């Protein structure tokens, strides 16, 4: 999911998408591709938008979000419908770092929809914010490890069992459930939705 510029990075993304920024001498998207390929994921598509030509090296399969300037990430996800409606797919934001371990967990999940999350989120949020709850979102799981709430403003730490990582898995069945759930929603409203809002609506 690499359609947006990452405007909060200011001049760092003036000539390239956020996913091409480097961490330890390696671009963010390279970290992701290495983790995916270690687990045998070879069929990779990129949803591009801003400076899409700079991403041509990373895949032979592209979906293009022509409305990347005015849309949110769910609209980019919809652009990948030809794959999501046909194949089991792992969906990854392009500005995150993870290892092959989490990809293995998602790949081996037997559920129609699976989501990864960071249960050790609090130390990182404390390093970034005086009050971690100002930026954190609700993420509640029940005793069966089913997601029951995501993306709202938490009232306390008890509302946060972890933080969404931007990494999840769909089967065609779960993708169909989501698209059917929004089939009567206008394109204007679809373009404004982020993934956590979509998931919370579906819950």
Short descriptors:
three-stranded antiparallel beta sheet; two-stranded antiparallel sheet; alpha+beta; 8 helices; 203 residues; single chain; 30% helix
Explain what this protein looks like in three dimensions.
There is one protein chain. By secondary structure, the chain is an alpha+beta fold. It has 8 helices and 9 strands. The chain has helices spanning 28-38, 73-79, 81-84, 100-108, 122-128, 172-181, 187-191, 195-202; strands spanning 22-23, 26-27, 45-48, 61-64, 89-92, 113-118, 139-141, 147-150, 163-170. Strands 5-9-6 form a 3-stranded antiparallel beta sheet. It has a two-stranded antiparallel ribbon with strand order 1-2. Strands 3-4 form a two-stranded parallel sheet. It is globular, with a radius of gyration of 17 Å. It starts with 21 loop residues before the first strand and ends with a helix. 28% of the residues are buried. The model has no long low-confidence stretch (mean pLDDT 93).
């Amino acid at each position: 999911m690499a359609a947006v510029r990452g405007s909060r990075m200011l001049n760092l993304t003036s000539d390239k998408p956020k996913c091409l920024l480097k961490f330890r001498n390696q671009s963010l998207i390279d970290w992701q591709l290495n983790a995916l390929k270690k687990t045998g994921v070879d069929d990779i598509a990129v949803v591009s938008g801003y400076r899409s030509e700079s991403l041509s090296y990373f895949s032979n399969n592209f979906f293009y979000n022509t409305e990347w300037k005015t849309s949110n990430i769910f609209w980019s996800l919809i652009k990948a419908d030809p794959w999501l409606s046909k194949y089991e797919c792992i969906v990854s934001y392009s500005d995150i770092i993870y290892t092959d371990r989490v990809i293995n967990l998602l790949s081996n999940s037997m559920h129609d929809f699976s989501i990864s999350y960071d249960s050790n989120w609090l130390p990182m949020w404390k390093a970034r914010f005086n009050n971690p709850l100002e930026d954190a979102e609700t993420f509640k799981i029940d005793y069966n490890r089913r997601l029951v709430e995501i993306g709202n403003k938490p009232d306390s730490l008890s509302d946060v069992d972890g933080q969404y990582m931007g990494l999840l898995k769909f089967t065609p069945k779960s993708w169909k459930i989501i698209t059917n759930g929004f089939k009567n929603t206008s394109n204007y409203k679809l373009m404004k939705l982020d993934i956590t809002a979509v998931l919370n609506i579906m819950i």
